[in-house]
Structures are given as structure tokens and as C-alpha cells.
Amino acid sequence: MITIENIHKTYQIGPLSMEILKGVNLTVEKGEFLSIVGTSGCGKSTLMNILGLLDIASSGAYFLDGKEVSDLSDHQHSETRNKKIGFAFQHFYLLSRLTALDNVGLPLIYRGMSERERRQRSAEMLKKVGMDHRQHHKPTELSGGEQQRVAIARAFVGKPSIILADEPTGALDTRVGQEIMNLFLQLNEEEGVTIIIITHDPGIARQCKRAVRMHDGLLREEL
Amino acid sequence: MIVKANIKEATRSLIGAKQRTLLALIGIFVGIGSVIAMVSIGTIVQEEALRQFKEMGTDILTINKGYGGRGPDGTQRKSGTITLEIAENIPRYCPEIIAVAPYTSTYGTFKYEGKKWQGPAMGVTGSFIDLNKLKLKKGRFVSDLDEQTYFCVIGNKVEEKLRSFGITTMVGTEMFFQNKLFTIIGVIDDTPAGGMRPYEINEGIMIPIALVRRFEQGGEIQNIIARMKPEGGHVAASRQITDYFQKAVKGLAVRVRSAEEIINQMQKQMRLFTLLLGAIGSISLIVGGVGVMNVMLVSVAERKKEIGIRRALGAQRGDIQIQFIIESILLCMVGGLLGIGLGIGASYGISIFSKWHFAVSYDAILLGVIVSAVVGIFFGFYPARQAARLNPIEALRSE
Asked: Cys bridge to B33: B8, B128, B200, B339, which one at CB 3.0-4.6 A?
């Protein structure tokens, strides 16, 4: 479960200070499938970075699974990202030197897990996303949709409590994008993981159980 | 676990960037190679120099008659004469000494069938060959029974000279020294220079010491080689000899040097010498290390996105730092191992060329391994810290 209260984020660019988030409030229940929509530059990505503990809010409170996390150390943030948060990105961000299997196992390395266990869990996860036949392929040998499936497997492999997906279908055509969306829906059902998708595509947003719109640094529920 | 994964990753990444890796490897290869070569050569030269002393034995002393001047008490030194009898009596009055070989040195003109050249001649006793550990190639050495007979034993270089004149049988051949006709009775094998041996052995001839009084100059005993009794102490031996000469030749001060003392001194100097060589070699190692740092910085810059991804997936700063340091250490260790090969190869080549005894210095190998790891850590630290300090968001956004 996520609760953020009155989140502000201000960037200082030279003498100018730009307020990107102007007091955002949001509560996401466990197992929810939420989309955040909005035009580019409205602060969606900034919010996602804050939710993903990659960035720190200028002010406000952030409770992740009931625990205030915004003023933890960098070390604790990394640990929380590793254990509780899974990321999916628009451009997949797989490491090109590694096979699909090793890419999926990457978050588990930082838990100090043995190679055997990593491989086993990664293989299971690849199977769930329908990629077990591509285990030993490198990202460059995979299509965009396949790469996103591998990236999703990587996001889920550590059994996080939330998945943050930033425009996960943005680089894919409509048909493949829909397949990826179906995969998210399926995993949300099966694993019961909270999923937050950031998108500017109303078609994607419509399929989520809940959608919020970001406009000018503020959030409001979509009906 | 993470270390194992990191080593695997580092290998993959280094192989991935072949050209860069190769260039950095060459730098470290040459750097470690030159340190190893320098240290090995230092050690070999040291062994070589000591070998000449040890060959003669550490129980050897040399006694030199001083050249006048002032003594320790400021009075004019008396330049008395050391007679053969005084010299040969040393063992009787100095219990630490068991054998002596006094000798005289002179320089003059050799002549054979109208051909002339300059060279040294030494007046020696029969004990000379033994104390100097000389090897007889042909004939016999000078004997004390030769008394004033015009016999000579020739050194290796003199033999070569005579051979070039077409002489095949040395023993029995006659030649002139200072217009006096000598019969060759023996030939001494090539004798390595250095140690406490007189330097004239190869270039000159050795004649019975009783003969030298017939020459106008150079007939005086200036040097004596002495051997101590087994397990003898060189300090006591030196004191006995000095005391003996004070009494035997009215206040004559002689200088006594022992092989042991000189070896100790040399070892001290050689250690410094090896250190100096190692320091010179280290300069190229530093250059190589800077090359590694450069390659690592480029590697970090090129892999910002990867660093961002890893950070997003939960890598700690420390994980990133260790990943790059391991990569740097791996690079240096591979370069270092190749460099050890280069260094040993180079020192082997140089010792063959200089006719030294080659020996692999295990210290040098150990040094190579340790130094390359240290270089890897040292020059990898800064780039790795840069990588670890990257802001994850900026790193993810970079191309």
C-alpha cells in the first residue's frame, strides 16, 4: 500500500525555481491497478521517480507499506527499491551484454542470492511472461515486445509489493502494446501486486481499474 | 556471491570493449614488465657480484701497504719495506691466519719475435694459485723452488695474443718481458675479474717473486692475500695483522680488508641499487596505471545508463564501486601476469647477453602480482567512485 501526502517537488534551474509537483495526494491500495495519465511535462515522471525512490520530494510524506520512506538514507532507498519496487521502462533498459535470463536475475544479485537460485527463479518468471523459449537470447536478438516481456519479468522476479511502469507500451505498436497490457493485467490478477502505469494513452488508461490524471502538478481522479 | 557475479560481469565487459581493454593491458604489461625486469636484473647483478667474492671464499683478507701519508695520530707514516720473509711469517705470528700469498706488481713491455705490447707482471709465491682459486689450463704454476729461474705462467689474454702469432704449444715457448727472456711453464684459465683477486691475472704474467729484485722498479711487496683459519673472525684477524706489521716493520700501518666485510657492504649497496632500479621501473608502471584509469573513466562514462539501471534495480553505491574496482583489478592482474612473463623474459635476455647467471626471482614475481593488484585498486578507485556517485535518474536518462 502506498500513501503520499502533500508532495511538493521544486527544481532549481539557475536563478529560476520550478515547482513541478504542487502538493500531490494519493493512496493506492494493495493489489490495485492504477494508471496515471497526463500530458508530457505535467510531472508524471517526477512523481514516478519519487514513488520509485529514485528521487526525493522537496516536502511531503511518503508511506510505503505503512512505513515513512522519504527520509531514509541512500543505502536504505536502494534496499527498498531492490526488495519492494519493480520498474518497467518505455525503452526496456535491458543490459545488452546479458542474456534474457541474466537480465531477469539482475535484481536478485543485489540480494546476495546464489547463481543457481537466481537462474531458477528467473527461468520461472520468464515462463510466466511467455519467454522461456528465449532464455539465452540477448536483447538485440529479441523484438520490442519480447524485450518488454523480459523487462517485466525482471520487474516481477523479486516479488516486489509495487510495480512502477513508465510508458511501458510507448515504444511498441498497438497490437504488441495490447499484449503487454494483457500481461500486466494477468500478473496483477495472479500475483496480486500493486501496479502503477504511467501513460499518455487513454486506451491503456481505460483498461486499468482506476485512473488518475495529472495536470499542472496536481492529481485528480478520473471517472 | 556478489563478488563472483562481479568477476563474471567484469570479464564480459572487458571482452566487450576489446580495443580499449587491449590498450590498457599493454600499458600495465609494459609497466609491470619493466618493474620485474629491473628488480630481476638488480638481483642477478647482485648475485653475480657476490658470486665472485664467494668463489674465492669468505675467509679471504687482503693486506695493502699504505702509500705514505699521515697516520691516524697525524704523524708522517713510515714507508718501511715488507720483505718476503716478513710477509711469509704472518701465519706464525697471527694465529687467525693460516696461509698468505704476497705479491708484487709491475708494468712493462712484452716482446715476442719483434712484436711488442704492454702488460703487467706479478711476482708471486707458490701459494698464489691456491689463495686466488685460479685454474691451471696447461703446464704447472710457479713454485717456490724456482727461486730465480726465468720462468713465467701466462694469463688467458696473453695466451690469446701468442696464439694470434701462430704459437700452438705455449709451454716451453720463450718470450721477453723488460728485455729478459722467460720460458712459459704454465697457462692460467680465464679468470673472472672482481672479488679480491688482483685484476692483472688475465692480462699479465706471473713470475717467481725472488726474481723481481732484478727489475729496476716494482720489486716491492705492496699487497698480500691471506686466508683465515676456518670459522675465524675477520675482526680478530685484522687486528692481529695490523699489530704484527706495527712491530715487524717499525710502525708500518697496513690496510686490511676482509671478503666478509666487503660482501656485507656490497649487499647493502646492492639492495639500494635494486630499489633504485625498481623505482625507475615504477615510472612506467605509473604511466600504465594512468592508462588504466583513463580506460576505466571512459568505461564509466559509456555505461552511465547501465549504472542507472543497476541502481534502479537496487544496487547500492558500494555494489557499483566494487563492480568497477573489480574490473580494474582484473585488467591489471591480467596485464600484470603477462608483464611478469615479459620481465622475466627481458631479464633472461639481458643476463644471456651479459653472460650472467640467470635466476628467476620469486620475490619479483610476488612483487608483480601484489603491485598489479594495488595498481588496479589505486587507479580504479577514482573512476569507480565517480560511477558510484552518479545520480540514478541522470544516469538512466543518459544515452
From this structure: B339
